[in-house]
What does this fold into?
Amino acid sequence: MHRLARKAVHELATAYNLGSKSKGSGIARYTTLFKLETTANSPLNERKIANILRRTSHVSALERASADANRVASYRVQARSSHLRDGDVVGGDAEEIASDNRGRVMLEKLGWRSGMGLGAEGGGITIPLLAVVKKSKSGLQ
It folds into this structure.
C-alpha cells in the first residue's frame, strides 16, 4: 500500500475513533484497524472526515500510477466509468467474444454455435445478460 494511502487510512481511523497500525515492509506494507474502548461511545467528527476525504482524493491515483504503465491505462478506464448512475445498463454495446476465447472454444466443442441458445437443447438465452449499475448501499430491490 502506498505510504500516502496508509497515512489517509490512519487519519480516517482516528476520525472514526478507531485504532490503526501499519504492518509488513516495503510494497507489502498494509494497515490494520481495530476498535478502541472509546469507539462505540465517541461521536464522529463528520467535518474532519469530509476534509480528509477531500484532501486525499488523489491518493488512489498516485498508488496506481506508481505501480506501472499498464495500471495507469486501466485507471483511466475506471475514471471514465465513474459517471455511471444507479440503474444504468453497462456492457449492452459490447462486441461478440472473439473466436479464440477459451470459454467460447469450450462451448463450441460441446456443439454450441453463434446465435444458438444456451443449454442442452439450445433453447436457453440467446442474448447476454445485462449488467445494471448499483452504487447505492440500499440493498437488493
User: Anything to note?
Assistant: The beta strands are 18-23, 30-35, 89-90, 131-132. The chain has two domains: 1-83, 84-135.
